[in-house]
Amino acid sequence: ENTYLCQIYNLTLLCMEDYIVEPQSVQFLVQHGFDFNKQYSQGIPYHKGNDKGNENQSQSVRTFFLELIRAKKPLILHNGLIDLVFLYQCFYAHLPDNLGTFTADLSEMFPAGIYDTKYASEFETRFVASYLEYAYKKCKRENCKLKDSSGQHLTVEFCNYPANMSRYIDYRHCSLEEEKHNVGRGNKVPVCEKFSAYGWCPKGVKCPQSHNIDLIIDEDDRLWEEKRKKRKHKWKRRKNTEEPAKAFEQESSGKETELAQNGEEGPPRKQSCYEPAAAMELAEITPNAEGRPLEENSTDMEPKTEAACAAEKEKETHGPPSQGGTHRAGFDAFMTGYIMAYVWMLKKGKDTDAGARPWLPDCHNKLYLSGKSVPLQIVKSLFSKSSKAHSQKMKLAWASG
């Protein structure tokens, strides 16, 4: 019941309108193996805004996007607000003038729900960090522990493609790293705190400190275990030296502190990096910060289409430039799907009869908002109407159904 057949597709797209190229984003894509020659020579063309003529009869990205809407399946993204803006404007219609109309349209486009794995990583599993590769590797580790202990665990199966398709298939290694990185711990390169907290470092591949996600998770786990032992030692000392009632009161308070730090009452943060000054500094060095208006964000992200806007949101530049790297559209999609499947398995427990309830109620139609403690709700309020362009598209989607 927790086995998934996984098929991943990379579609190389090319916007047929003028757009702005950001050097940092292009460098990021090149470092991770993106082929700009292929994009400009073989990329699937698309245009932004409303349809031009009856595009329902043509084989285009817009037709494909309508098929996704017709399928009425849940849409899963990671830190997905900008992705949704991009998908809507480039493959669907002109962006609405206000946010209420935009969320109303989305709620009708994807009635099975929209799920954001960054929100799930912070507010459901409550990981110390929630950028994509960290959340994926953390889920992978925890899942392996469940498997080793014969507990309920997630299993992923891949297709056996015929040999004549080999030139169309790109393989990436995604298993857990071997224990070799634990050997010689005293000689290892120190972890980059900025990258550890945010999944991005302004120095990129030139950073002298480690951007290795496995080492970062090791360090986080070690620090958490040390804190847990210290708290446990304090409780024992209090119980032995103070009055029973007072000791019980303080012990209870200590447990509440542990719950809070473990994220039971909110997502934990890496306090060494998560400070206002550091956050401001990050905002200043990050191009296209997520706080900009939707229209401004959407005008200059065509170069990032194939990376699913990953350069915009995560900038996980780890290790020297290599052919391919691990951070690309298809692999990002796989990691996103894996996180969601793992979270769903944990949350549903033994209740497999979901009935008419949403697929994962606590994450249903909730988009992560950077720097906010509350998500963006994808709902149609009583005070908002659907856009005219959206209404026309919905008629088109179901006219041929």
From TrEMBL:
A zinc finger (C3H1-type) spans 186-214. Residues 186-214 form the C3H1-type domain. Residues 229-239 have a biased composition (Basic residues). The keyword Zinc-finger applies. PROSITE patterns: ZF_C3H1. Residues 229-272, 286-328 are annotated as: Disordered. The keyword Metal-binding applies. Keywords: Metal-binding, Zinc, Zinc-finger. Pfam families: CAF1, zf-CCCH. GO terms for cellular component: Cajal body. SMART domains: ZnF_C3H1 (SM00356). Residues 240-258, 301-318 have a biased composition (Basic and acidic residues). GO terms for biological process: snRNA 3'-end processing. Transmembrane segments: none annotated. GO terms for molecular function: 3'-5'-RNA exonuclease activity; snRNA binding; zinc ion binding. It comes from the Eukaryota. Belongs to the CAF1 family. This is TOE1 protein.
